[in-house]
Fold this protein.
Amino acid sequence: MTSTGSRIRFIAIDDNPLDLLFLEEMARAYPLLQNCGTFTNPIEAYEALQYIKPDLIFLDIEMPVFSGIELLRKFRTMIPMAVFITAHPDFAIEGFELSALDYLLKPIMEERFASAAARIQDFWKMKQKSLAYEVLFEQQTLTIKEGYNQVRLAVNDIVYLEAMQDYTKIVTLGKHFMTLSPLSCFMEQLPPDQFVRVHRSYAVALRQIRELRHSEVVCGSATIPIGKTYRSGIARLKLRNL
């Protein structure tokens, strides 16, 4: 990960010291991430958040006194990015409703942390540019406005869409584009017979699907997770295409 601007100041909160130490060690491999404090006590973290004001917060969910979700609710407007880390996948929906950028399950694998770090970097670059990435929907094309520039993109070129809080990343075989439109807007505007939602954070182009698995879908060179609530729909899709 290389920075195009200032470093991302983060704090991490987890009442398990070993998990916190492991997170610190993984984050150290990414120069863009600047550690501004780690806390095992959520009350101390609550007090520190009021003066540190980080760009990013890694936080466990199940903690004494304050859960990670309660803590984020109190500070959501002043923290641009949040990543939940927990051993309990059942909390994922509530986490995404708070616009968490990612949700990591313990034990965290280095490959999964690298994926989260890439999402963090993409979102940070977009925020640093401070451009309005508008998108205009037409029948089989999208016009993406990046500042004063315009890019015309064929719908058939889209491999998948990735939600990043209020933004959506459009991924093609050649490159990707950031747009200031939520993923729900894309799903309302794009042809319903050409795209399917597979996760709260992902939608894929049906024509780009190379392989369907129980918990993953392969599109182009990317492997996309399938969320639990979307698996039954994907299973029906698989049966129709056998």
About this structure: Helices lie at 17-27, 42-52, 68-75, 92-97, 110-129, 183-189, 231-240.
